[in-house]
Amino acid sequence: MTDVAGLKQAHGKQIWGMSKVFHDMFEWMFRAGTIWQLDESGKVTNVLMTEAFGQAMELQHKLWEVGAIHPDAIGGDLPDMFSPGQVALTVDSFSGFFTNMLPKLADSTPESEPEFFVPPAFDGGDITIQRDNYWGIVAISAEAAKDEDRLHELLNIINYWRRCQGVEATWGSPASSRANASVGVR
Description:
alpha+beta, two-stranded parallel ribbon, 6 helices
């Protein structure tokens, strides 16, 4: 990110490392853990009071100071800056990234070479991914998919979960091009 900040411009555009501050990602890098956790003495401690959280904040501050983070990232209402090729890092859903952002990036910055980024741990070890809000991945195992009736029932359940999105497609048809579309059974 500091290298990106040092460039200031690329492909004829002003650029930054990030247009948003991805607090979770920095906490993962320092293995900060859950919002509430037990310390070594058995006392319940908020993540904000941990050394790891402080280290994550120090790294964010460093990146802010060198200009890797867009100046309006905190409190600003910035539009998507990844698709037009103005930031190096973004976070989005799988379908949003592939159906929306990558095609726009290819149009706006044909020489771009996007790659997936797994943040490194501060010490070269493993990161700890912790989600404190509702989040998950819905999948149907290959074993369950062998039974056609069971597969259709599971797809109906997934469609029920997605009903508030207003997205519905018939089994076997291509998914809607809208972000977060699902394919299932009517």
